[in-house]
Amino acid sequence: MSAKAYQEQLQRWQEEANTRLTRLLNNCTYHCVEIEKIPSAEQRKAQRVISLLLQDLYPLVPPVDEIDKMRSGHLTGKKIVGWTAKQIFIEDNLSQQTLPDRSYSTVIDQIFVKLWGLLKKTSDKYIVQEPTNEKIRAAWDKISEITDLEGLPQNIFGLETIWQVLSGPPFGYSEYNFTMLLAGWLAIHRKEVSLRGYIELGSKKLNMTLKTQSLKDWGNTDILQNPTAFVDDWIIKQKSKLIRRQQA
């Protein structure tokens, strides 16, 4: 077949495909699931419809009480989540006297204590506990399910797998929310877990040091300084691992 004949035949196929697709689309009817929940006057507003669809897709998204500091990329939120997760890695509690400023206590009290129930507040400390909020508990239990030893004395799990599950439906975790939940889960299970990864972020692989360390030792590195880099670099690009073993 000549080049000209080939182009003519290709054009005919494309026209036929377009005709059939147009006929198919014209014969379809469309319905937005649960759109009746939106007032009639609002049903043509794309933002309202998209919001409804996202709520249906991510029913277990972690509550943040509209505190914008938990929005991905928020600089103050980055500092609060990174610092708090780092302290949780080092120890199961953190002193209220060590909080850098009032914005830390606002986020910790409103989200991680009241909404999530991940931390319990005493007169002078915040203590890590299993979350009381049912949405957060569902994600917590999912981590336990993914890292179930199934009778083995020890096993290795990719942290990226946990991130992929919790960032997708029905959970919808951001890097900030994920970092805090993972830190809490690891802290509660610190006697049975260790982490394997490189102690540097954003370095060339030739100059990086691979280590298997306790949670406390990792807390004393800089991997949690930026929650987004913790997920994108340390977990996804560097393929860091969680090692879990049966408790004696």
Describe this protein's structure.
The chain is an alpha+beta fold. Helix content is 48%, strand content 12%. It contains 9 helices and 7 strands, in the order H-H-H-E-H-E-E-H-E-H-H-E-E-H-H-E. The chain has helices at residues 3-26, 46-57, 75-90, 102-115, 134-146, 159-167, 175-188, 215-219, 227-237; strands spanning 93-95, 119-121, 125-128, 154-158, 193-198, 210-213, 241-245. The chain has a 4-stranded antiparallel sheet with strand order 4-7-5-6. Strands 1-3-2 form a 3-stranded antiparallel sheet. A hairpin with a 3-residue loop joins strand 2 and strand 3 (125-128). Helix 3 (75-90) crosses helix 4 (102-115) and helix 3 packs parallel to helix 7. The longest helix has 24 residues, at 3-26.
Q: Characteristics of this structure?
A:
248 residues, alpha+beta, three-stranded antiparallel β-sheet, 9 helices, 48% helix, globular
In short:
With 248 residues, the protein is of the alpha+beta class.
